[in-house]
Queue: 2 jobs
Job 1
Amino acid sequence: MPFKRYVEIGRVALVNYGKDYGKLVVIVDVVDQNRALVDSPDMVRCQINFKRLTLTDITIDIKRTPKKKELVKAMEAADVKNKWENSSWGRKLIVKKRREALTDFDRFKLMLAKIKKASLVREELAKLKKQTKA
Amino acid sequence: MSYKFHQYQVVGRGLPSETDEHPKIYRMKLWATNEVRAKSKFWYFLRKLKKVKKSNGQMLAINEIFEKNPTTIKNYGIWLRYQSRTGYHNMYKEYRDTTLNGGIEQMYTEMGSRHRVRNHCIQIIKTATIPAKLCKRESTKQFHNSKIKFPLVSKKVRPPSRKLKTTYKASKPNLFV
């Protein structure tokens, strides 16, 4: 039952509500019990409520309120982007985004691919069944 | 972040007359929701301090004051005078925020909730940015920790926009972090 993800300076979080929805941000300082000062390479540093954040497992090594350049350097050093994109949570979000962006033609191609895959699986299954019967 | 209360610098003086060719100019920094209210407040306070009214005075300038460093967290100390049901009292309150307007707004809402004081019954005497060493209140001092670390104890999953909100859910949510 102990906690694994803490609000701390350097914790990477995902914004789950509001204008910056879906962005990965780093907690750079804590304002008070409900708000954190949050920063990301492509946005102005701002304060955001913890209710709008979901903490991730990734942390980076920074001092309290670093300069933007130091923040970017620390994010590169901790390889946040790759860690996120290879994590199961990150991968699921990428797949979700890809699915949302499908056109009708893409969905058609997807349907054909699914049918092909199912038929291949069924072929192999039939072969195995024949073997066990024989 | 849009704040309800804006900080204005209001400058005014009494009208020049034969006895006083160059009356003294007074400047006030005050908080109001808009410029009209700021001017009105200026005359209200000036009336109490000097022998001048809006009818025999003139407004010289009104400018909004914006936060210089909205990306740094500061500790604000606010001295205020408020009217309770039984009389007037002075208070000193501390808030942590990135902007002074944010701190003032926190103060107004806190006074409303803790003491049932309405906005118009509060007069702000003085505000200051307090360095961490001189803060008096434990609730602000507990965040003066460069290695601050605490868990978020309960996680409420919210729909990502108000539009996707539903009154009924199929199952109880799991609030574990």
Job 2
Amino acid sequence: MDMPMSFYWSDQAVILFDGWSVQDATGMAFSVLAIICFGALFEGLKRLVGWVGKGKGLWVDRETRDTSDPEAEESTPLLRSPPDVALTRKRKLRYHLAQSLLHVLQVVGAYCLMLVVMTYNGWLAIAVFLGAGIGYLVFFADMELKQT
Amino acid sequence: MAQHFLLVLLLPLIVSNTAHGTTTEAPTPSPAPMHTGHTMQHTMDHTGTHQPGMHHTGTHQPGMHHTGTHQPGMHHTGMDHTGTHQPGMHHTGMDHTGTHHGMGTHHPGMHHTGTHHPGMHHTGTHHHMGTHHPGMDHTGAHGDHSSTGHGSGHNTYFYFGHHEVVVLFLEWTINTVPALIGSCIGVFAIAMLYEGLKVWREMLIVRAADSSKAARSNSYSLNNITNGKSTSKLDVDIVPRAAEPSTRHQICNCMHALQSLLHIVQVLISYGLMLVFMTFNVWLCLSVALGAGAGYFAFGWRRPITVDRNEHCH
């Protein structure tokens, strides 16, 4: 495998796939724009994963509240019916599955961006950094604290 | 402050751009000091091909096999690439059009994955690459590690060495032991600062959230707001929706702009550290890892939240 090992500035590059080969300045400009958009959307995807995780967290709280509350168990033993718990578990599982799929997409996106930087083309690397910045500006604007 | 830091980081990129703008015309091979810090070496064994005007001086080693291809006008002025046997070589999209083709550093856009070579055409006469191959003629050039005797442009295994180690930029070439030590210390410092930057960003967010929540707390009583110091986990957003500022105001305020700039810097440094690790030099990789550990140790005790969603590959 032969790869450049230091940054260079050129209008020619092959990005991620054999078919995506850039020959001239306009192609490079379009590729830079595309990578900026992809980087920005990737930040949005990260936000989406956290958001789905929060949705899952609601169901987790409900489940733990249902199963680990001794007062409720003693006072209202008949109201905690098994289908309720099963429904909660199913909902939590669905949220978790959705979050896992989104996590896979996020990992794929992260590695793709890393591979774009690894072409060592200066313009493409700048595009990745700018995409990250613009995506953060747009999608992390409400300044919430980090979700686990 | 963050802007100055960005400028300092971008300055080497701008400098390297202007440094490689000069083209040299040397169609005849002449002995020249080759490969100042250029570790990319390749063997091109063109068996059964028709190549007028192509001369490969140097050792003849099995490498890339261009069987049955017709390459008119392919002009490699003394291009001798010694390399390993790479049965998986695939040159597609290699199109060097144009006459004066002073490429910035070396082989932009050349990606090799696979066996055959469709569409490889080298049109154009003068094919000299920037300042590095003015009629290069190096017989038996060695790689940057001497144990096995063959060198390839990109190592896929860890090696100990300090000869011709290119780190991120061609100007940053390590050839001596003091240079290696200095580079290790520098990379260590960058990794430490990276951890510090992450913690600092978290502190900024916590402090901004605290101050905004304190500003909104006069309408109702909240007894888990601290007195301005950064607290431990605050993982529940308990402010009602009506009191939040609009989205446009959230995007355009100063704190978020600063956070975005710091985000760009963080992404830049994280990719840079990854690329340093990709040199596969054991000393540099150890510096990255130990620097990250030292930074975590030094700055981590102030860390408000342990999990970072902004970490790029999670």
